[in-house]
Amino acid sequence: MLTFTLRRLLLAIPTLLAISLVIFLLVDLAPGSPMSEIPLTVPPDVRQRMIEALGADQPVIVRYVLWLRQFFWVEPATLFDGWFGTTWAEGEQRILSWQSRSPVFTIIGQRLPQTLTVIGTAYLVGILIALPIGIYSAYRQYSLFDQGGTLFAMIGFSVPTFFSGTLFIIIFAVWLGWFPTKYDTQLVVNDWDSFIKQIQQMALPVMTLGLANAAAISRYMRSSMLDNMGMDYVRTARAKGLSERTVVLKHVLRNSLIPVVTVIALGIPAIFGGAIITENLFGVNGIGAALIGAIHANDIPMVQTLAFIFAVLIVLFNLIADVLYGLLDPRIRYD
Amino acid sequence: MTDAAMPKPVSQNRAIWQQFRSHKGAVFGLIVLGLLILFVLIGPLVWVPEKLKVAEAIRLKNQGPSLRFPLGTDQLGRDMLSRMMLAGRISLAVGLVAMLIAIVFGTLIGVVAGYYRRFEGPLMRLTDMFLALPLIPLLLVLVMLFRDRIASVIGPELGAFALIVFAIGITSWMATARIVRGEVLTLKEREYVLAARSIGARPRRIILRHILPNVVSPVMVAATLGVAEAIITESVLSFLGLGFPPDFPTWGRLLFDGLQYMQVYPERVIWPGLAISLTVLSVNYIGDGLRDALDPRIRGR
Known about the structure:
The complex is a heterodimer of chains A (335) and B (301). Chain A is an all-alpha fold. Chain A contains 11 helices and no strands. Chain A has a domain at 110-296: MetI-like (MetI-like fold, Orthogonal Bundle), CATH 1.10.3720.10. Chain B is an all-alpha fold. Chain B has a single domain, classed as MetI-like fold (Orthogonal Bundle), CATH 1.10.3720. In chain B, helix 1 crosses helix 13, helix 5 (80-115) packs antiparallel against helix 11 (203-239) and helix 10 packs across helix 11. Chain B is globular and about 75 Å long. In chain B, 41% of the residues are buried.
């Protein structure tokens, strides 16, 4: 298992390098750069020196390697310095956002909690809705409940989150007035009232994303339960005289959860991508909103870094899913 | 075995159709999608909005539904019904063309990777890499970077169409490639392929005559689901303001335009959103039905 994990980790390095090169080159072709913002009244030789000072005249490969060094050495070292008071990254140039001239990772550090609160809760709610639906649908296959569950999943797949979110805003915020239409990032939770406010403003984005996630996960749960329901060990358990509850919720459920857990792990990077839409719709000031803002402002370092972080998440959670599968299911051995 | 005991033979197409018809959702999907296609193709021929002068149009802006404007008018006094029809044409066209690009590309890569062992490693690594790319951010970046350049070469409307269709197609072929490669790997070991090779058929002929016809079914299912996905992706781009220009709208763009007026005129968001959702829902159901109908193990049970 350890060798497998190590081998997969090593294999992830070339994949990530290739992806980082693609992202770097793609974004590097962008027409907008801080050079184009230099006023035309600046004399050509001064302009040339400014470009040289920013390093923008270096060949692409040099800039790429420098960017990699910043991403993989300077930024982690800065983080380490912040925690333990060391001075490893002192005097090093960090990745700077062109919009705000502050380090990209500082901005991401400020935005990430917003994303994690909303998206994390939404995913959790989605899982908590999906598992019972999937379990009961499988237990009573072809029943009215199962058909309802199938319809729910099909609608959940098909209605895009930007539409379901808009519908929720119209129904629950505009017509009924239960929840605010926009998420207030400034809200500080320090007492009961502000906590209620936080719950209220989180309700709509969490509902939107949660339902979309629940649709997919409930299907996986159902089919995984169905696979296990017909197994010999289930018949044995019933023959031993175990209660139906024990058979389904202990024997079948535990075995059925194995593939579902990996599916849940695989879905995590995708929900960060989906969060871009939800964050924009509800005005959550998270990393998805930061990405859209950076794209509209031609903030190249910010776009590169965020896109690469998304890619790292995908590769990382693929790896986690594979390892989890091996850990949870003793029948699977990779060596 | 006597003749009487044999089941009545049915042609393959008829068997597929019978299985498809027994899937209620798929039939519902087919009917709804058919109606939607009629709506966007025939609709503009039947419903010709009256030509309004600018002054009239300004007076008639933001109208509610009436006989004159069945879906009302937008903030510039344009008839929403005819805008919905024209937008639907583009939305469906984007879905179809992007799917075609993805299918052709995916099948090509899948066949080459499955048939020629030499290319298998590199091509599947390429597929894995594409699968690990963060697609929505990359699509947004692609559109932002190349929109103006392409628009200056072939015009803003065709430019937006070509760019978005190409970008979606080039980022959604991976599933098809994997499916096709898997199928080709098993098919090329079959006896009839060996027989074809032993009489001296060239790889080109073996692939075109013997292998490709047998991967049609899974590719068709992937293609159906691909249309739905492409329509959603396009509307996401439009929704984030990086899609089609406002005078050449898709359903996603209409929804994006309606967002500002959502609190006062919610129907302007609901109609395009409903159209997208219904299209995707019916296409998904059709894909589901096709999967059952094209699978000979399920068919006839």
